[in-house]
Amino acid sequence: MTVSLTNFRSLGGYPVANGHIRDGLLFRGGQLDDLSGNQINYLQRDLKITRIIDFRSLDERKQFPDSLWQPVEYQPIDVLIDAKKNGVSIDGMIDNAGDITDVMLATYEQLVVSDSAREGYHQFLEELIEKPEPTFFHCFAGKDRTGVAAAIILKAAGADQQLIFDDYLRTNDARKAANAKIIQQLAPKLSVAQQHSLAQALVVEPDYLQRFFDTVHQKYGSFDGYLTTGLRLPADFSEKLRKLYVQ
Known about the structure:
It is built from twelve helices and seven strands. The protein has helices spanning 37-46, 58-63, 90-95, 100-113, 115-130, 145-157, 161-174, 176-186, 192-201, 206-220, 223-230, 237-245, and strands at 9-10, 15-16, 19-20, 26-29, 51-54, 73-76, 135-138. Strands 1-4-7-5-6 form a five-stranded mixed beta sheet, covered by helices on one side. A two-stranded antiparallel ribbon has the order 2-3. Helix 2 (58-63) links the parallel strand 5 (51-54) and strand 6. It is globular, with a radius of gyration of 17 Å. The chain starts with 8 loop residues before the first strand and ends with a helix. The mean pLDDT is 92. It comes from Lentilactobacillus parafarraginis DSM 18390 = JCM 14109. This is Aldo keto reductase family protein. GO terms for molecular function: phosphoprotein phosphatase activity. Belongs to the protein-tyrosine phosphatase family.
């Protein structure tokens, strides 16, 4: 059985160096609020997901709490808690509508250098190594905080840059209907210019993820340097990841 979930997908099957990502272990998407019984059954029984990692802020989690089931391990990790300005939540998108591109580029820099992002992604990636189990990781839209998390996993697993960006950009097609619904719901409260800016904020751009990788290299010299120095992961992290998640 396949059930529709917005911007939801598995990383399983993606080709990487010396193999492909194992099926049934790594899933990405948007928030899981207000799920139907069929959607919960799909995640719990069909996909056998046993761990949820939520990258959203406390305010986002309170406003739109995930629909959970028993037993599932739920772990909130706010990767942008110390970022003063970002465009990853609906409120942030609206507040920063006038300069959303600059805000998003700055946000992707923060996803490299901020203490909360470094600590958060460290915790997330350590969890994947310590307990390799079917895991769903997400934020609000499953595009920025989640997109970076997926890019880190794929890069460490040995995926080429084109595949990493292709997966990242799949969000734009996957969220078309959901984005249109959000704009329609908020339209009475927004000017035409704000609606246009919100539409722009709800999609991902190659430049955003490129800014993440550029910042990684500027700050740490290389992706491996980012893993070991930025995220404080062991030198053999990528090797461990590949043993567990690549076949």
